[in-house]
Design brief:
The protein is an all-alpha fold. The protein has one domain: Up-down Bundle (Four Helix Bundle (Hemerythrin (Met), subunit A)). Helices cover 80% and strands 0% of the residues. It is built from 6 helices and no strands. α3 packs antiparallel against α4 and α3 runs antiparallel to α6. The longest helix is centred in the last third of the chain and has 32 residues. The site of protoporphyrin IX containing FE has 19 residues, from α3, α4, α5 and α6.
Length: 177
């Protein structure tokens, strides 16, 4: 197919990208506000979803390593797995917050500022990363690999930061659960 046709195919996904990038953060924000009464807090979830974040970081690095070696199929499979991990993370994160009160960070002084800087940057960038991942993905599945490469150079570090900072936030808050 011609490049023009590939770009035309890519554009067909724009509505979906815009809709999902707005809807996902909104739905998550609304669900966070809803507490399910008379349900025991799912307190076993935070270590699991923190571990999934760690796994996502490793998968992302492996996926880029594989494409640098020219292994396209393996790169594709790893990136699809990374997306699945992020979806699982989000579902567990929501389930936990709908059944538990948020934990306050108990540290004082510098460590408190470090914690909130990492937490707030993690939250903001986790919203920003959604359209980046979707655009990167759509450019790959529509064979726009030059355009895929261009945006992937931003998506990759952004997504990696979100995954790693998720683990850091968990490690820092875990003494206060
Ligand atoms: C959203 C998930 C994805 C991310 C973050 C991502 C990230 C990347 C990165 C960082 C590169 C290397 C860019 C460079 O060399 O500087 C790359 C290249 C590539 N990716 Fe992905 N990728 C994703 C999904 C996919 C999927 C699903 C496919 C296959 C359908 C794919 C196929 C490729 C190919 C073929 C290249 C090489 C392009 C070239 O050298 O011309 N990627 N990707």
């Amino acid at each position: 197919m011609s490049e023009k046709q590939n770009i035309a195919n890519e554009k067909k996904y724009n509505k979906w990208i815009v809709t999902l990038s707005i809807t996902i953060p909104l739905v998550v924000a609304v669900l966070f506000g809803i507490k399910i009464p008379n349900v025991a807090p799912l307190s076993f979830l935070p270590p699991i979803y923190a571990a999934i974040n760690g796994v996502t970081a490793v998968i992302l690095i492996s996926a880029v390593f594989q494409i640098k070696k020219g292994n396209r199929k393996y790169h594709e499979r790893l990136m699809k797995t990374a997306i699945l991990c992020s979806v699982l993370f989000l579902l567990m994160y929501i389930a936990y917050h709908m059944t538990s009160d948020s934990t306050k960070f108990g540290g004082q002084g510098t460590i408190k500022y470090v914690y909130y800087t990492v937490l707030i940057s993690h939250i903001i960038l986790s919203i920003v990363v959604i359209p980046f991942v979707l655009i990167t993905y759509v450019r790959a599945i529509t064979n726009n690999f030059e355009r895929h490469k261009k945006i992937a150079r931003i998506t990759f570090p952004l997504w990696l930061y979100v995954a790693v900072s998720g683990v850091v936030v968990y490690i820092m808050i875990s003494p206060y659960y």
